[in-house]
Amino acid sequence: MDKELQRKVDKLQFLLKSYGCVAVAFSAGVDSTVLLKAAKEASGTEQVLALTVQSPLVPAADVEEAVKFCREEGIRHEVIQLDPLIYYDVRTNPPQRCYFCKRLIFGKLREMAGQQNIVHLLDGSNADDGHDYRPGRQALRELGVLSPLLEAGFTKADIRVYAKELGLKVAQKPSAACMASRIPYGEVLSVEKLQRIEQAEKFLHEEGFTQLRVRSHEDMARLELLPEDMERFMTEGLYKKAVPRLKELGFAYVTLDLEGYRMGSMNEALRGK
Length: 273
Hints:
Blueprint: H1 3-19, E1 22-25, H2 30-43, E2 48-54, H3 60-73, E3 76-81, H4 88-91, H5 97-115, E4 120-122, H6 136-142, H7 148-151, H8 156-165, H9 191-206, E5 212-217, E6 220-225, H10 227-235, H11 239-248, E7 253-256
């Protein structure tokens, strides 16, 4: 670990120790896993509570992974059932959807933490999150959610290196995002659409693709793959398996995005790109 990253780790540990008892919003992604592990190391298991939301916006495999990790680490863990789609401001999917959704979810997490007399609720935001359109950050600020990785200056790359130092299996786990981010703003969200996307991405992961997105445009699937995977997708004939499988799931058309995988591509329309 280089000196700059060590400085960030030291600051993170200082912050975590200063909080005392904490609740961590835990999705089993790289960021929240590193934060949870660091909180355990800084304060001990008795001072840490992991909170995971189970909803149509979260792949079932992620919840299962969260449960397994906390069990192995001996960390107190609660899974909260919540369906944001019953709320109009989330279901109708406006550009501010993430704000309404985060406000709902983290409001519930704060309530759960409060029931156990825990004042500090933490999330895994990092320094790279400011590079994209993130209205949910406003909701976190309003609710007083703390982001120690961000405050300590961790980038996504730093978090992956630190995860490796901590011996965490998630060090190379692909970046994840809310399932609603696969659907264009203004297109109404539904459980059926989200499950269709989840199953399509699961199929592609099982075929050996790592970082990817299946963007859903009504009845069309737009596949975003890494540039090195796009060639394999075509030359090895994997599209011959993918197209019928995605049509079986309910998509009428399957396309390959020639720009490849990129974070927040649904926000490009908001930026006029």
